[in-house]
Design a protein that fits this description.
This protein is of the alpha+beta class and 189 residues long. The chain has nine helices and eight strands. A hairpin with a 5-residue loop joins β4 and β5. The longest helix has 27 residues. The termini are far apart.
Amino acid sequence: MKEILRQNIIKRLGKLPSQLEEVLDCFRENEVSRKTPVLLAGEVCQQCYFITHGSFKIVRTTEAGEDHTLGLIFDEEWFTALDSFRNNTPATESIIASEDTQFLSLSKERFTYLSREVTDFNTVYRQMLEESQADLLDRVNNLMALDALARLKYFQKKYPQALARINAREIASHLDMTPETLSRLRTKI
């Protein structure tokens, strides 16, 4: 698993960083089964994550008990409940495996150490934050500006593997449509 992270860091930096082994040693390898949460709403997030294979969904549950998939994260993506992680506050969302998933976790303590001591780690983290922000803005813009079919086409282009790997109900929720609408639209693409 750490070899995938090694290659991701080298690709992001465009070089082999001098303290790469120290960074890799700070990560812990994990595996979870589908539907297993790594964070529940109300808990304080103490980890950031890197997926080596699989996927997670970020879910917010309404007061009425309805789950809404706010985000889907796939292979070789970094993620955390950022507000909770940075501010030591309870998370407003849950993070749950959408399929059997292998991932690496980095504790807040080790994250703080790497941020302070390893310049290249800060560069990778900044890139990850920038990508996350761009993805969020892209998702909001698409939900506001595109019709359901265009949102599905965009999603399929961005995550070509997702329709075959992820539960259709989760994808429909992520795209703000019903599972029935998703099923009907899939025949049009």
